[in-house]
Write a structure and sequence with these properties.
The structure is a homodimer of 308-residue chains. Chain A is globular. Chain A contains three helices and 20 strands. Chain A has a domain of 143 residues. The longest helix of chain A has 13 residues. In chain A, the strands form two sheets. The first copy, chain A, has a ten-stranded mixed sheet. By secondary structure, the first copy, chain A, is mainly β. Chains A and B meet through strand 19 and strand 20 of A and strand 19 and strand 20 of B.
Chain lengths: 308, 308
């Protein structure tokens, strides 16, 4: 893998499970520069003319291919906004892996704001995986504000796995989706905050077409003095089905708010929301402690299971 | 019953199930004037010095007594704001029935804004029933904006039944509660809107004391072109339990939003929210139609059962 150092390699493992150059199409961005790119017969990646990001074009009918677009920042004080647009052709079936890792051992804040737009053609299918990770012992903060927009044409399907497990000091996540007839969206978010971190995660899903459906599931753990706010808005504008769910574990002196909003603008919309916030049940911890774990180990095991 | 006419009598039946002067303490307000009052050895009712409403003092230890404070408006164009304060002594156990009926056959809007404050002493118990009803074929609107504040001292208990079934053109309901240790609050709201009505119902519940708990249950039906917004905010500031639930049936061209908010500011807070919006299931209607009901009759029966 060209032009990247050991720190960047470790970040890549964390955010994209990559030990080497990925198979298929990829675009690797390191410290604000393109550090590697590969295209295939079906998947083209081009830099935008104005240098603000990349366009990814996936041909209609492309099956079982993948695109990796990891970003790593190991330089303290770097701030960037990147726009990546994905055009997925009709009937395609692909996996897209994004992710951002920041290692900040310096004194200045490092910040990556990735704006991803997905245009799914008719009957296409996308599995999208996004992982955010931060590390470094400097005073500079690690900040990520991802913006995601998803446009689903007739009968397309998108599954999104969005994970932020560790080390991101501040994040303001915004995800917006517009669904046409028969389109289906499944979002699974897993978020853990610790220390003095702050996270805001907002979803707006518009079910515009008949028989469209969305399922937004968020699992969150807030530890130490961290603060989390979960916002999920589902608008039923057609004969549709929407479900959102937020399960959160609160620990130490953390603070969690869940603010869902469901609106039926059509009599044939069926919408459900559920949210629960609580601490780990005492009997769960005791059960694991009787098996020989310390209290801290028992808690860690339960949290890992919850976020898996 | 002195000083009230036939229209007002009918309104009283609708909002307070009263066919005659109630037992026990009562204060009847008709077209902006006191039309009758009775006090008992344990329950005193006095007009505020500034004329803005009444103070109700219930002695500590008062058991199995009731207070009725219905309001009726039969004059078109009347607008009033009334402040009623209830001081419930320690260990009391009472029933309080409020309610407002507006008959507006004129061209001008009639509006009653009742602000009720309840101060519950230690270990006291209150059952509160509030019904809102409107009628009349004029173009003047029937508007009610009730504001309710509840302050619950240690180990007190309040059960609130708040019903708005028919005829209120516009309502903005605000209910706020502060709970001390061991206090318990149960709210059951039932709301039906029809025609071009608008209703906003907001709850803010602060669980401040250890072992306090709240259960807010709302059942709503929106018909025709009516619009409803349900807002419920529960803040867990202690070792506490909070639950809110909104079940809504949407019909015709109506529009319903549910926006709950649960916030855990304490690790020992356990908070849950559930909301569901949907239309009446087709098989429920068909079942009743096979028993000989028309589609409209079947719908009415299901709606009545849902709001009962």
């Amino acid at each position: 893998m060209a032009k990247i150092d050991e720190i960047q390699k470790r970040l890549l493992e964390e955010v994209a499970d990559l030990h080497d150059v990925p198979e298929g199409a990829y675009n690797l961005r390191a410290n604000g520069q393109t550090a590697g790119r590969n295209t295939t017969a079906n998947i083209d990646i081009t830099s935008k003319d104005d240098g603000t990001g990349i366009d990814i074009h996936i041909k209609p009918g492309t099956k079982h291919e993948s695109v990796h677009i990891p970003v790593v920042l190991s330089e303290s004080g770097l701030t960037e906004v990147v726009y990546n647009d994905f055009y997925i052709g009709d009937d395609a079936d692909v996996v897209i892996v994004a992710g951002c890792g920041i290692s900040n051992c310096g004194q200045q804040d490092s910040r990556h704001d990735g704006i991803h737009r997905f245009y799914l053609g008719k009957n296409s299918k996308v599995k999208y995986v996004e992982k955010h990770y931060g590390e470094g012992d400097g005073n500079g903060k690690r900040i990520m504000n991802p913006g995601t927009e998803v446009y689903l044409e007739e009968n397309s399907y998108m599954e999104m796995e969005m994970v932020q497990i560790k080390g991101v000091d501040s994040t303001n996540r915004n995800t917006k989706a517009e669904l046409s007839a028969g389109a289906k969206l499944v979002i699974q978010e897993r978020l853990m905050t610790h220390g003095a971190q702050e996270a805001v995660s907002g979803f707006v899903v518009n079910l515009n077409g008949d028989d469209s459906s969305a399922n937004v599931i968020s699992r969150a753990v807030a530890r130490d003095d961290s603060r989390q706010t979960f916002l999920a808005e589902i608008n039923g504008n057609s004969r549709c089905a929407g479900h959102s769910e937020c399960d959160a574990i609160i620990m130490d002196h953390a603070n969690i708010s869940a603010i869902p909003k469901i609106t039926a603008n059509n009599t044939d919309a069926a919408l459900i929301h559920e949210a629960a916030i609580g601490k780990i049940a005492g009997d769960q911890i005791i059960k694991l402690m009787t098996l020989g774990l310390s209290e801290a180990e028992a808690e860690a095991q339960i949290v890992n299971g919850f976020l898996k």
